[in-house]
Amino acid sequence: MARSAGLRGSAVWGVAVVMTLGACSGSGDNARTAPVEASGDGTLRIGLILDNSGPQAFLNAAELAAAKLAVQEINAAGGHKGRPVELLPASAGGDTAVQARALADAKADAVIGPTDSSRAPAAIDVLSKARITLISPANTAPELSGYKSGGYYFRTAAADIAQAPVLVKLAKDAGAKSLAVVYEEGSYGQDVSGAVSASAKAGGLDPVTVSGFKAGGAQKSAAAVRDAAPDAVVVIARDGAQGAIAELANAGVPGNKLILADGAFRQYGSALGSKSLEGARALVPGVFPSAHFQAELVDIDAKLKDTTFAAETYDAVNLAALAAAAAEDDAGTSIAGTLISVSGGTSGSRASASPSAKPTVCSTYKDCLAAIRDGKAIDYDGESGPIRFDANGDVTAAKYMVFTYGADNKAKLSGSEAAGRSAG
């Protein structure tokens, strides 16, 4: 998540970042870790950083269940080199650095987490020094793509700005010839609004107005939209989303003109005036979890009520295990150096096959492992969809669910879209 946990219902989403320590490679900060001599102890240990607390504490259960499910399936397929993969005991807590140090002391080879983007640097700083791979299932802040991690930080959730071309596409698909952008001031709003403006111009939709507001103070922005009379309005906000939508309704902007960025998505119901959002559309990153995947998660945790970030966590664990299998080594450095390859990306070493070989697409650890043992390159496409890390470790494809609001201001799944890249 970016800076704060903008919840997305039962959304599932995915992305990553990496760079290399000078001791491992002579390349620049964003280069991938080069192949190294095997240095693992033969047991693959995967740890979890569960950093959700307060209203977001329920996210811990989904991430833990998904990690347990992945490890269970990996071990059923033979584990790593015939030994069971260990999921290190996880306890939720707000101090990310403390959790990271505890996992390093427990000899973790790869760590999954954290959830909140603002806590990622603390985990990266600790784990990269220990040469432990870190894969977040939920970090979306664009600036993390350039964070110096020594090649050890990845994420399986798309950066916030990946949604920009999709937001513009929704407007154009509805016949819009003009577009307005209303955004909440702050890094999330500014980053996404800038990307939307650029995507709109590239698509022939020059924004007629781009207006920022502070939470609780969207009156001027709503008035600017009313005066510009655009065909579509993109609302980019988190905490101030409800207030902005209410002000737009008060200004006479109909719901069917509104397109909500992911941070503004929620089931508003009676919190807004009747029909304020009727016909509005909203984006939610990821793909809706299959009934089979949800059932498997409930088998792990019968009390599970939400699957947010479960798919990304599940895929992160599988990718870490497949990278270790392809490298034939469980050390964090070897895992980091092979993650791009097993994700189907275009950079990084291919320990198990010729770089010119066409990757075998596979969706389970068992099937991917069989391909690796046959000497094939693989492209793991998991529960969150294709990943395919690039040279920065960011996914090169991002999937989104489209929700449409009814007269009761509640949204229902109405379609899906895909963006070509996750970061600019």
Structure summarized in a few sentences:
By secondary structure, this protein is α/β, with parallel strands linked by helices. Helix content is 31%, strand content 15%. Residues 2-31 and 348-355 have low confidence and may be disordered.
Account of the protein in words:
The protein has 424 residues and is of the alpha/beta class. It has helices at 58-76, 96-105, 120-129, 164-173, 187-202, 219-228, 241-250, 291-300, 310-327, 332-342, 365-373, and strands spanning 45-48, 86-87, 110-112, 133-136, 153-155, 179-184, 207-213, 232-236, 258-260, 281-285, 360-362, 378-380, 398-405, 411-419. The strands form 3 sheets. A 7-stranded mixed β-sheet has the order 7-6-8-9-10-13-14, sandwiched between helices. Strands 2-1-3-4-5 form a 5-stranded parallel β-sheet, sandwiched between helices. Helix 3 links the parallel strand 3 and strand 4. The longest helix is centred in the N-terminal third of the chain and has 19 residues, at 58-76.
Q: Identify the strand order in the major beta sheet.
A: 7-6-8-9-10-13-14
Largest sheet: 7 strands, mixed
Q: What is the chain-wise order of helices and strands? A: EHEHEHEEHEHEHEHEEHHHEHEEE
Which bin fits the share of residues in helices?
25-40%
Taking all residues together, what is the mean pLDDT? Answer: 88
Q: Identify low-pLDDT runs.
A: 2-31, 348-355
Which descriptors apply to this entry?
alpha/beta, elongated, 424 residues, disordered N terminus
Layout of secondary structure:
Layout (H helix, E strand, L loop, with lengths): L44 E4 L9 H19 L9 E2 L8 H10 L4 E3 L7 H10 L3 E4 L16 E3 L8 H10 L5 E6 L2 H16 L4 E7 L5 H10 L3 E5 L4 H10 L7 E3 L20 E5 L5 H10 L9 H18 L4 H11 L17 E3 L2 H9 L4 E3 L17 E8 L5 E9 L5
Parallel strand pairs: 1-2, 1-3, 3-4, 4-5, 6-7, 6-8, 8-9, 9-10, 11-12
Antiparallel strand pairs: 10-13, 13-14
Helix pairs in contact: 1-8, 1-9, 2-3, 4-5, 6-7, 9-10, 9-11
